[in-house]
Design brief:
This protein is mainly alpha-helical and 170 residues long. It is built from 3 helices and no strands.
């Protein structure tokens, strides 16, 4: 009967807590039963049975407390998981807001760069028109100069011809 009780106790304790080493659990239960068996040896068999029953009640209480602790730990874990999910959701929202802000800034910067590019192109076109006007003015002056040079050459040719004709005939 005592051996069955020790095995039942070992089984209940193994179910209540996470057991890393079954041999250690068996040794622990055996020593515990041995200790309570020694305290009950001084009297007759009846006190030993009473101490074993008392020990069983204490173990049951201990197992109940361990189960309650496990339940509290599980509820804390669930609560922490929920808080972590909420925090993750909140962080995702913040990142989305930051991403949107950066996208808006990017669009604004793109518009400003487009405006600067347009202004630069307008300035470039204006400068090209001014250079074309200056080039046209120089071409007009060049044509006038060439026309004047041709007239002077023609005038000198006519004069030289007239002087030659006057000398020859005159």
């Amino acid at each position: 009967m005592a051996q069955e009780w020790v095995e039942d106790l070992e089984k209940d304790l193994a179910e209540a807590v996470e057991v890393k080493n079954r041999d250690s659990l068996h040794r622990y239960i055996s020593r515990l039963a041995e200790h309570f068996g020694r305290t009950g040896e001084s009297g007759s068999g009846q006190p030993e049975l009473a101490s074993v029953t008392n020990f069983g009640a204490q173990i049951s209480t201990l197992l109940t407390e361990i189960r309650a602790i496990n339940a509290r730990i599980e509820s804390m874990q669930i609560s922490m998981d929920k808080r972590f999910e909420e925090l993750t959701h909140y962080m995702d929202k913040r990142f989305e807001a930051v991403d949107k802000r950066f996208e808006d800034m990017q669009k604004s910067m793109d518009k400003r760069f487009e405006a600067v590019d347009k202004r630069f192109e307008d300035m470039q076109n204006s400068m090209e028109k001014r250079f074309e006007a200056v080039d046209k003015r120089f071409e007009d002056m060049n044509k006038r100069f060439n026309g004047m040079q041709a007239l002077l050459a023609l005038g000198f040719t006519v004069l030289a011809t007239m002087m030659t004709v006057i000398r020859l005939f005159g």
